[in-house]
Design brief:
The protein has a single domain, classed as Rossmann fold (3-Layer(aba) Sandwich). 42% of the residues are buried. 37% of the residues lie in helices and 21% in strands. The radius of gyration is 18 Å and the shape is globular. The longest helix has 15 residues. The chain contains twelve helices and eleven strands. Strand 10, helix 11 and strand 11 form a beta-alpha-beta unit. It has 289 residues and is an alpha/beta fold.
């Protein structure tokens, strides 16, 4: 697939959202197929390039019902390349209301010329990114032609993830070289269990040089920014969870069997009032994929 960089204006003056635009090498011709754009959002602490293995599979898929024109993966304003661009404004950040991410998504949609019956955009999000897509749709109904929410964080009561935020602030942030970082993450109890393709992408695009020409690598998303996002779930996550019935676009929920943040039964319990909704736990998903 072909990849290009694009920079969007964020919802707040002076902030930018850095994105990768992916297009298939060969666009299959399908008479009558609906042409769609994918908009992808990542989990807290992750970045846009982690979607690339998924996009390769999607671009290889052939359907007579729809054709993917392009896929646009965003870095949240304090993650990945967006964090690098916005470093001055996010330094010292302690609290990130998730509504900010939702507003940035709507700002990007506006610049794409999408939403409300214009360009057909399907949102695909993971964890915090999935919750942000749902919030964006609640703030501006029918902005999306559809949403696929993977393990969305949807608490029905306020929570600030204080324990997770405290652990995050203790994360290691710096390595002597990229190879040293790769070795560290390969042996880590959490990252070591990842698909090697995802782990390699995490290191290749989630770290930056600590200074001009320096070999030392440091996380683009600093622990304080990641912790700020965890704290930002406080009111935004319950707002999304308790207003899902307002969502008007077709919505699909994918949940991991052992997910702590999005247990399948919890998701099943809160999505029943969405007009056009499907729910597929991980076991079912892999049985048909």
């Amino acid at each position: 697939m072909d990849t290009a960089r694009r920079v969007f204006s964020g919802a707040r003056t002076g902030q930018t959202i850095v994105a990768n635009v992916y297009r298939p090498h060969v666009r299959p011709h399908a008479d009558g197929a609906r042409r769609v754009t994918l908009l992808l959002t990542h989990a807290n602490g992750f970045h846009k390039e982690l979607w690339e293995p998924t996009l390769q599979r999607l671009f290889a898929h052939r359907s007579g019902r729809w054709t993917i024109e392009e896929a646009i993966a965003l870095d949240g304003y304090n993650h990945g390349d967006s964090a690098v661009a916005n470093r001055a404004s996010i330094a010292g950040e302690t609290y990130t209301p998730w509504f900010l991410a939702a507003r940035d998504i709507l700002a990007v949609l506006s610049q794409l010329g999408g939403g409300r019956g214009k360009r057909a955009v399907v949102g695909i999000g993971h964890s915090w990114g999935a919750s942000s897509l749902l919030l964006a749709e609640l703030l501006s109904p029918l902005s999306f032609a559809g949403i696929i929410a993977t393990d969305p964080v949807l608490h029905t009561k306020p929570t600030g993830h204080a324990e997770v935020a405290a652990i995050t602030l203790k994360r290691r942030t710096e390595w002597a070289s990229e190879s040293a970082a790769r070795e560290y993450f390969a042996g880590h109890p959490f990252f070591g269990a990842w698909d090697p393709r995802i782990r390699d992408l995490y290191v290749a695009h989630g770290l930056e040089a600590s200074g001009p020409g320096a070999a030392t690598r440091i996380l683009k998303c600093r622990p304080e920014n990641e912790a700020a996002v965890y704290r930002g779930a406080l009111y935004a996550s319950p707002f999304a969870a308790n207003n899902l019935w307002r969502i008007q676009c077709p919505t699909a929920f994918l949940t991991g069997e052992t997910s702590h943040l999005a247990p399948p039964q919890h998701i099943a319990d809160i999505i029943g009032d969405i007009t056009d909704c499907t729910h597929m736990p991980e076991a079912e998903f892999y049985s048909v994929s």
